[in-house]
């Protein structure tokens, strides 16, 4: 399974995604970067919901525990100040003085809603092998992405290294999160060739939609759309 994961990561080659290319070469305008990061916040807030739904579909309590642990860590292990959405809010504040009321004014971009919808579809409507593959490869990719983003934010002088938050935590944390999802998949991978098809489908889907999210955010970086209403962007339960 590790070979398949590595091959999919190489094929996707998120390092060459324009979002990261132009952040590295210094042509990504600061205000545009901030706007795309505000949009990414909407993905951060939503991410633990499909994860929690996926846990309920995993057939054994031992394997289920791997995902439940991730859900608990996403919620700061009970410390509300360490919830991932809270650390990302702190990142936005340190990056550009963005406050919750500023975020409330923004309309969610379709690129983010599409990403969130794929995650919940894979984790709720499909079998658990698909959902765990999707979530696992996203966690694995984000461990690299978090390192790149944190490095570039500091390199461009947008946040001092000692003030960096969220991204510096996920560079290491999400390797463990990814391994937890992959551990859920390994018994099924070893048990039957048929399972491998569905696992690879999940891995490829996750890599595809996560790479596409960043491509879409970069393409729409000049977009500024606001809303008159307040409250959650998703009311489905």
What would a concise description of this structure say?
Helices cover 73% and strands 0% of the residues. The protein is an all-alpha fold and 237 residues long. It has one domain (2-219): Heme oxygenase-like (Heme Oxygenase, Chain A), CATH 1.20.910.10.
Could you explain the architecture of this structure?
Helices cover 73% and strands 0% of the residues. It has a single domain (2-219), classed as Heme oxygenase-like (Heme Oxygenase, Chain A), CATH 1.20.910. The model has no long low-confidence stretch (mean pLDDT 92). With 237 residues, the chain is an all-alpha fold. Helix 3 packs antiparallel against helix 8 and helix 7 (110-125) packs antiparallel against helix 10. It contains ten helices and no strands. The chain is globular and about 50 Å long.
- Approximately how much helix is present in the residues? over 70%
**Helix vs. strand class:** mainly alpha
- The run of helices and strands is HHHHHHHHHH
Q: What is the arithmetic mean of pLDDT?
A: 92
CATH domain class name: Mainly Alpha
Largest sheet: none
Poorly predicted runs? none
Percent of sequence in beta strands: under 5%
Give the topology, please.
Blueprint: H1 2-12, H2 18-24, H3 30-57, H4 61-74, H5 84-96, H6 100-104, H7 110-125, H8 128-155, H9 167-191, H10 193-219
Helix pairs in contact: 1-10, 3-4, 3-5, 3-7, 3-8, 4-9, 7-8, 7-10, 8-9, 8-10, 9-10
Task: Please give a handful of descriptors for the protein shown.
mainly alpha, Heme Oxygenase, Chain A, 0% strand, globular
């Amino acid at each position: 399974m590790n070979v398949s994961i590595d091959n999919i990561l190489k094929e996707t080659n998120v390092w060459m995604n324009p979002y990261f290319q132009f952040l590295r070469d210094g042509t990504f305008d600061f205000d545009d970067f901030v706007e795309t990061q505000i949009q990414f916040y909407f993905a951060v807030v939503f991410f633990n919901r499909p994860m929690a739904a996926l846990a309920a579909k995993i057939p054994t309590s031992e394997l289920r525990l791997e995902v439940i642990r991730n859900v608990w860590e996403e919620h700061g292990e009970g410390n509300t100040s360490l919830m991932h959405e809270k650390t990302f809010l702190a990142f936005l504040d340190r990056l550009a003085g963005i406050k919750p009321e500023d975020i409330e004014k923004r309309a969610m971009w379709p690129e983010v809603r599409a990403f969130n919808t794929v995650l919940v579809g894979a984790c709720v409507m499909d079998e658990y092998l698909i959902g765990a593959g999707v979530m696992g490869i996203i966690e694995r990719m984000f461990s690299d992405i978090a390192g790149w983003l944190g490095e570039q934010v500091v390199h461009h002088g947008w946040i001092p290294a000692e003030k960096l938050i969220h991204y510096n935590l996920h560079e290491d944390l999400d390797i463990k999160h990814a391994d937890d999802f992959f551990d859920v998949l390994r018994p099924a991978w070893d048990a039957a060739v048929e399972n491998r098809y569905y696992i690879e489908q999940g891995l490829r889907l996750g890599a595809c939609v996560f790479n596409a999210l960043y491509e879409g955010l970069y393409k729409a970086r000049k977009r500024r759309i606001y809303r008159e209403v307040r409250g959650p962007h998703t009311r489905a339960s």
